[in-house]
Design a protein that fits this description.
Layout: E1 2-9, E2 14-21, E3 28-31, E4 54-55, E5 67-71, E6 78-83, E7 98-103, E8 116-124, H1 125-129, E9 141-150, E10 157-162, E11 168-173, E12 183-190, E13 203-213, E14 227-229, H2 245-248, E15 253-262, H3 275-283, E16 286-290, E17 295-305, E18 308-314, E19 324-328, E20 334-338, E21 341-345, E22 350-353, E23 357-362, E24 373-378, E25 384-388
Antiparallel strand pairs: 1-2, 2-3, 4-6, 5-8, 6-7, 7-15, 8-13, 9-12, 9-15, 10-11, 10-13, 11-14, 16-25, 17-18, 17-24, 18-23, 19-25, 20-21, 20-24, 22-23
Amino acid sequence: MSEIKVNSIKGVGASAAAITVNNTDGTCIANITNKPNRNLIINGAMQVAQRGTSSTSSNYQTVDRFITGHGGTDESPTQAQHALTSSDTGPYAEGFRFSYHITNGNQTSGAGAADNIYIRQRIEAQNVAQSGWNYTSSSSYITLSFWVKSSVAQNFYGYLRTADGTSQRYAFETGSLSANTWTKITKTISGNSNLQFDDNNENGLEVVIIPFWGTDQTDSGVALNAWGAFSSTTRTPDYGTAMDDWYLANDATFELTGVQLEVSDHATSFEHRSFGQELQLCKRYYQMFANTNQKYSGLTAFYYTNSHLECMVRYEPEMRAAPSLDQGTGTDYFGVYVNNQLDQFSGFSAISGDKRAGSLDQTSNISGTAGHAGGLFINNANAYIAFTAEL
């Protein structure tokens, strides 16, 4: 048996692969650590933002698959998809062109115990269960890596949380960041006998990174870099007065990009996927169908009865679960052209179906002829139709 080291294998994109060749029969085994489809995080390069590029609301609002949650704030933070430039030393040279960017509001009443601003992505349980991580073994590892930049020099906390069985959390810190300087963070995390991931499409693992969390959610006794039982009051160590500078700084900023979670005992180079690939992965959870004013949506509506309009939709790709309807509504926001007439209405009243296809219904202020059909028209700049099956 002999081992050959190669720096790259054409068409695979691997690096430093070790190939063991059997000299007797000529067979070989390639140990390729930089393999494709290894990143459990979706949209870690912050490329896709179907909903928009800036918002002061919480939850899913801008960059797909990531949320900014906040509570107790005097002024809401702004979450945004932010364009990077060549001055973003570090991530830009590695091919990153966007970050997930948080701008703090003015927290005039100070850092309250219930105050918080955090960033989170949830991963389906089946994606972890089938990832190849022997998660109940302390000698099997996953590695979290990401680029982070803060306008305030400070240490920050984060944690992983499991959802199945008895919920567990793994708290970590970034270490002290220099102000306005991109820093690559790497955390290698061992398995634990208490971990459980069911083979289903529900929430399995949360990755949370925290610009600030008040003492209602933290505890000075929380150990870093170790698994422990999750409690909503013991997520990470206390931030305290030594770590509230960012929260108390008006318009302080916090940025992430290059977020990767992989089955490995070390961080490999980021798995850059094309925009099209990342968009398809995001569409399992959210699909924007129509949001362009004075344009046809590409959907066809028909009159089931004279006063009942239906619009059939097929989701591509199949969604995680039967979605709910997300729409921008208002007087005459939508219309359907039938016989050269525009029948206008404010929005759809109901959705039915499964994760593959659905039917939108409207039964108010609709007047047509049963059996007639026409193209669904977007009639206002604030009108849109989307479908969400987020975790």
